[in-house]
Specification:
With 182 residues, the chain is an alpha/beta fold. The chain has one domain: Flavodoxin domain (Rossmann fold). Helix content is 34%, strand content 19%. It contains five helices and five strands; from the N terminus they run E-H-E-H-E-H-E-H-E-H. It has helices at 17-31, 69-78, 95-104, 133-146, 169-180; strands spanning 4-9, 35-40, 81-87, 120-126, 149-156.
Length: 182
Amino acid sequence: MSKKIVILNGSPRRNGNTSALVKAFAEGAESAGNTVTEFFLDKMNIHGCKGCFGGRSSRECPCVQSDDMNKIYPAVKECGTVIFATPLYYWNMSGQIRTAIDRLFALEEGGNLLRGHGRSCALLMSAEGSGFDDVLAYYNHLAEHLRWENLGQVLAGGNADAGDIKGKPEIRQAYELGKSIQ
């Protein structure tokens, strides 16, 4: 049975190393019959969460703010898997993806359409270095909080310049992770 997969790509580079992981993952997922929707967050107009607790998951666009998250909310509501893709920035996810994750909270308010519901998630990351421990702690806690099955991660360190990841085993790992989603 095919799944709807949403990829939140938090890289600022359309042709960077994180995007190469996203491309390989999507190819694998689509080869298994899944439908993949990627949101390239850097080109979207997404404002930071105001912490107002005004979200209502029962509304089509649950947040009180009206911006490009209104494109993401329906896709996340309908999908079975969410992929978080990001470069490592200061031992964490990029600001682009952190902002989108914060705003997903609106789907929990007033009806809890985010937590559980048989969803799964995975993490794709590239980095110049290899200090993934802090971001893995955050990601694992997020998956636990959301009650989503954690499908794992592909962590590609040692990729300073765009294109450095080409030919590395993490590209194949991302493809295989995508292909494994059934």
